[in-house]
Amino acid sequence: MWCCLLSSWARGIVGVVVRARRGQLRARRTRTTAPSAPRGPVPSQQTWRRRLWRAGVGAKLASGPGREGDGGGVAMFGDLFEEEPSLAPGLPCGSGKKAKPRDAEPPAPREVTHLSGIKNQGGTCYLNSLLQTLLFTPEFREALFSLGPEELGSLEDNNKPDAKVRIIPLQLQRLFAQLLLLDQQAASTTDLTDSFGWNSNEEVRQHDVQELNRILFSALETSLVGTSGHDLINRLYHGTLVNQIVCKECKNISERQEDFLDLTVAVKNVSGLEEALWNMYVEEEYFENDNLYRCGACNKLVEASKSAKLRKLPPFLTISLLRFNFDFEKCERYKETSCYTFPFRINLRPFCEQTDLDDLEYMFDLFSVIIHKGGCYGGHYHVYIKDVDELGNWQLQEEGNKLTKDKIVKDNESGKENENPLTDLKEILSQEESKQIPVDQLGQKFLERKGISWNKKYRKPFGPLRKYLQSHSQVFLFSPDGNKISLKENYHKLQFGSDSQGQDLQSSYQNNNVQWTSEKLSTKLKDDASGSHWFDLNDAKVRPIKEKDIEKQFQGKESAYMLFYRKSRLKRPYEAYANPRYGIPEHLLNEMNAANAELQKRRAECDSADNNIDLHLHLASRYKFYNGALHPSLSRKESVLDLTIDKRKTLGDLRQSVFQLLEFWEGDLILSTAKSLPAGLHLYQMLNGDELTLDGIGLADGADIFVWNGKEVGGIDVLTGLDHEPVLLNVLRLARYNEGGKGQHFTESQHIFPCSAELSTLCKALTSSRGIILMNSSGSDSEAKNWKVISEENMKKTVKTTGLTDGSSILVLDRHDQSLVNVVDGNLTAFTHDISWLQVKNLCRLEAEERLVKITATIETVMSDIKITAMRELQLEEQLANDICLRPINRNGKLLSPVPEDYTVKEAELKMGSLLGLCHGKAPTSTQLFLYFVIGNDLQAVPEMEIVVEETATVKECLNLMLEKSGLPGDSWHLRRIDWCYEAGEALSEENATLKEVNVCNGDTLVITEGKLPPKGFLKVPIWWYEPLIYYGHQEPIQNQVNGVTCKIGDLEVSSAGTSSTYIQTDMRLCYMGDVEISGEASLADLKIQAMTLPSFQEFSVPSPEFLRAWTVESKRPGKLLRNNQQQLNEYKLGGKAEICIEPLQKEESLSPSDLLLRVQMCIPGERDYYCSVDLLWDTSKECTALALRQRLAAHYSLPVDKIEIAKYFPEKFEWMPVSSWTQQISKRKRKKKQESLHSAPYHLKDGDIIGVKNLLLDDNKDFSTMRDDIGKEKLRQLAVEKKKRYSTVCIFLCSQTCKWFCHLS
């Protein structure tokens, strides 16, 4: 599992520098430069570790992969140092953690290797690799097991206040026992990590395995203080090295000894482990020239040599490869992937201080290689381990299969002729209760089974029986004394299994004289690869590997990271080989035996649950047969019995179970498969063959079984099988007037027919002799093209062959209904769901009173026919037909545009049931347009007028017709469209274009607006004068003002507000100056010059256009600032309705694109008001952030940056939003990201925005609001309440009108 975890840059540098420093102290390479000052003692590894821990770096002495930048390693491993549960009695292990869900299924048993893996909790592959290495270090494992409850305590006593429980060693013991004895594919480390104090976040973080190794050893040493295992770590892993500096003049030797639990060796520019050790412990470093050493004896700078040697070698040597380095040029970490060799056996004599001991004292064998796959920021760990005690089954699967296959082929070629003695021997051994048998008894049982002895039948091709068994060692296993034989596959069952009563199987096979567990596997293993049995333990997966596979980890992205050696002279006791129980305490043996028994019980229950199926038994005595199917006479609960049975049982077992359920059944008992159909229950196949299994005959979970006598139900014969399946058909007929529900056009009923029935039978049952039937196999709501008439030649077909299934529809048309449909070549082109009615209301208001009639119609009915029919029903004179038209009426009672009389109902887009009005006037033809038009700007107060024009008429001709009809004089008018707000919108500027060309449609509303349109390419721009106002003291009362602005009809006038007598600035004043007609290609400067020529502009003294600032007007307020005087107006995209306001300036102004114009106002200290605002230009070309704005404002007011607070004002909400300076507190890591711009949410800073400033030196109140803001918010709240009330009133009115309309329709 990949864990791609990012690391902090700064902390990564610290880790690399520390490791680089440690590598310098260890490598003893020649220095090119060195200080000439006297050299003091070099800090030891432990000194560096203490210094870094005080500095906050914690245990990060190794810059391994997957480091967390937030100190994850320290937080993760800190509890191992500080929070030992044994020192804090009464604290439950893992308190506060969520309960872990119990698995629904039991864990899988061990695989063919007979070794257990470890589950990965999300990112704990590094922990799993280290734990497996410690497990396969027998001396460490047995020393840990030797500590009993009297020294470590018991996990059951953890919650007792006075009990001293050493949780970490206990959990480690328990985990090792599970890995050795528990029959499961992978063990869990949850309890162990809980004892570390880890939370769920730590379990998904990946850390350095070397760091964990050191800290776990430290935690164990701390936890084992006061026990017989207090020196466990030092005894197995502790070694010493000595650093010596020899003076070349007085030969004085300065010596310093260092302790180590592991060695870190360089990888960069080194070919292998032996070269790295040579550089560290053989080569000398010389102090000469400018790099001299101060000798304590000579008391001066002298030439000297420096070297290091290994003084004491531990029994187990741990070597960490420095694969992770830091590139100071690129300023990034990287992983060394170059080739780095290491031997399987290494002689450390050249690197030791003492070299006169026996060779075995210096020989070390490799037994574990922890491998890292990935890069320096994340990856995955797994471990190659040598099975020292030969606990696993080392046999490559493909080789074993190939060997067995070759043996069988060889046996067949030797003349076996379709007989395989291997199979017979395996069956004999597998049938033995003890799973093993003496060799001579095997020959006797073979004679009893085959009727002929081995020597007579197989001695010649295969040799003696014992030789044949020995040649098939991959199948058979001899006892140590060679007298008994068993199947190799039974070894796993003997090791992990338990009997049906849950008792320890070890005692079982001890009673049967099987006492050779410790040797039976070793005999086999020593025959393979000279005892080099390596396994790849990759979390939960364990597989055997060859020794040559380890050489693949010399280099690459997946390469060796830590090496573990053991002294060659360490020998294991004979009874430890192939005996996973060796050294395990009795209480753990009992716990594992009980756990194995529970696992076998759960697996048996799970196996039974997986094979159980639920069958639904339908009893014939509780069913009736009618309408072609079976129906329960009682409720379903009373008619059906549920039966759970193992699908591996036979049909005879099922029949016996049914007999037991039905105590009083008489006669034959037949079981038939059944299925619930829409028509009811139908029977299919009778079940025969009592010897067949239920799975074999195809019975699945949830199957329906009908229990009957096989002939009849309730005295009625029942036909079974696919040919007699009942089909449920929907039969549709045309609904008559007032027949069926509201809006329904059909009456629907359901009929059941056998699928073998002929269509002629359907016709006789459903219609008269002259009627027709249409069928739709897709259902009643399908398209008309799916409906077909059943022809005479198809009457002999059956329901099944025709394609009718459950849910198919049949339309029955009697003779008088056939005129309402159009059938061409058997296809229905105008289908019945279009047959409905329209309502016509008399609005002519002649002699006849206002009446409402219903007219039957289809979607193809022509509107002229509907009009004539309606006039006849309303008894109107036919000569009025040319002066009357039909107009739709909407829900609000408004008359819509007339419908052309040559349109059909479909073309007129009318829905069935729509209401039409019969009105005076001619209906427009298909080439004419019916238009509404209004005059002026107040569209709500002016009634709409109607006109009919040709769609080929021009815009000017249409305008003249409207002016003529409305009686307006003159030609200073133009037409505009209505926008979505029902206001005058876009002007129809192309007067010579036809209405069709400008996309004027039937029923559109146009506005006649006063004034001529400007020539093409010209803009007519209203000009406003904009000037902020300043007043003294008190003006209008506060309660009559909103934020100091009083709005009046006409000019937008303002007045001051507040109680202060100082200068208070209000919002603005806009005065209309006139209209300017100007070309779109003119510049902004031309617009300003032309505005200065307006008559009302003469009262102002403006020297030049540079003293004017131009804004667009949006919602009667300045909107967008127009900056560049030389830019064309078309480039500003002003639009036809744009308005411009001009603001006078005291000096010339030239704004760059990056300048931001802000209205800045300083808060009056101690009052809820502000001084007059000033314009502030802020250059945002570099950055537009909160910090930059604070710095600009602080410089403007000559205040410290940290002594001001700023906020942006939102006048439409009367709210102030503080501009946060959060960027000053963010971490260095986050500061690398692009800081948020004030142009974006939530500030959306733009030109003209108001920025409030508070001087914290004079006023520490950070509330920016004023009394005007409070009044404005209150008025907004009152407006919202009134709007809600109006909305509720309108909704009630519309609902009442809608109800009246629906009642009127019905």
Any overview of this molecule?
The chain has 32 helices and 59 strands. With 1306 residues, it is α+β, with helices and mostly antiparallel strands. The strands form 16 sheets. Strands 1, 6, 11, 14, 15, 16, 20, 21 and 22 form a nine-stranded mixed sheet that branches. Strand 8 (293-295) and strand 9 form a beta hairpin.
Query: What form results from the Cα inertia axes?
Result: flat
Instruction: Supply the number of helical segments.
Output: 32
Query: Could you say which structural class the secondary elements and strand pairing correspond to?
Result: alpha+beta
Distance between the termini: 70 Å
* Sheet of most strands: 9 strands, mixed
| Low-confidence spans | 1-63, 66-103, 414-418, 490-530, 737-744, 780-784, 829-833, 1030-1066, 1223-1228
Average pLDDT level: 77
Q: How many beta-strand runs? A: 59
Helix content: 25-40%
Backbone CA Rg: 49 Å
Strand content: 15-25%
List the helices and strands and how they pair.
Blueprint: E1 3-4, H1 9-27, H2 45-54, H3 72-82, E2 117-118, H4 125-135, H5 138-145, H6 149-152, H7 167-181, E3 186-187, H8 190-196, H9 209-223, H10 232-237, E4 239-247, E5 253-260, E6 263-266, H11 273-281, E7 285-287, E8 293-295, E9 300-302, E10 304-312, E11 316-322, E12 324-327, E13 332-335, E14 345-347, E15 363-375, E16 378-386, H12 397-416, H13 421-430, E17 436-438, H14 439-450, H15 454-457, H16 459-462, H17 465-471, E18 476-478, E19 484-487, H18 490-496, H19 505-511, H20 517-525, E20 534-538, E21 541-545, E22 558-567, H21 586-611, E23 612-619, E24 623-626, E25 629-632, H22 636-639, E26 640-646, H23 651-661, E27 670-677, E28 680-686, E29 704-708, E30 712-713, E31 716-717, E32 726-734, E33 746-754, H24 759-766, E34 772-776, E35 788-789, H25 799-802, E36 809-813, E37 822-824, E38 827-830, E39 836-842, E40 852-857, H26 863-873, E41 884-888, E42 915-920, E43 928-935, E44 945-950, H27 955-966, E45 973-978, E46 984-987, E47 1005-1010, E48 1018-1026, E49 1030-1031, E50 1064-1065, E51 1070-1079, H28 1084-1091, E52 1108-1114, ...
Parallel strand pairs: 2-3, 6-11, 23-29, 32-36, 39-42, 43-47, 48-54, 55-59
Antiparallel strand pairs: 1-16, 4-5, 4-10, 7-10, 8-9, 11-22, 12-13, 14-15, 15-16, 15-22, 16-20, 17-19, 18-19, 20-21, 23-26, 24-25, 27-28, 27-29, 30-31, 32-33, 34-35, 34-36, 37-38, 39-40, 41-42, 43-44, 45-46, 45-47, 48-51, 49-50, 52-53, 52-54, 55-56, 57-58, 57-59
Helix pairs in contact: 7-8, 7-21, 13-14
